[in-house]
Design a protein that fits this description.
By secondary structure, the chain is mostly helical. 64% of the residues lie in helices and 9% in strands. The protein has 6 helices and 2 strands, in the order ββαααααα.
Length: 111
């Protein structure tokens, strides 16, 4: 079950099913609905502590930091943390590949 309340600033999302959060967040990001993705990712760890999807949601949060707010260095730090703490998780390889591209982007933006 999920409920969507609309505010003036952005949609506020509450997901009662943590297993639905990852695919919904990925779809929202693919479709360019980044505010919706933010609503799904933000606070996932507090709503569902210890859930198996936490590393993936942290990774998606890092992607959002980079792609939505252009905070590449902050995103890289977050993704490095995912890799360090969850190196055996299914998302770790995706995070490593993304980090290589992100580090290259950071290097090209430095003076």
């Amino acid at each position: 079950h999920w409920h969507l309340w609309t505010s003036v600033l952005r949609p506020v999302i509450r997901i009662d099913d943590p297993d639905a959060s990852v695919p919904l967040a990925r779809l929202a990001m693919q479709d360019g609905a980044r505010e919706l993705a933010v609503g799904l990712v933000d606070g996932f760890d507090r709503r569902f502590p210890g859930h198996v999807a936490m590393p993936t949601m942290y990774f998606l949060g890092g992607r959002l930091l980079s792609e939505h707010w252009h905070k590449h260095e902050q995103a890289a730090t977050m993704i490095r943390s995912v890799i360090a703490h969850f190196s055996d998780h299914a998302v770790a390889d995706e995070a490593r590949a993304y980090l290589v591209a992100l580090d290259a982007r950071i290097d090209t933006t430095k003076p």
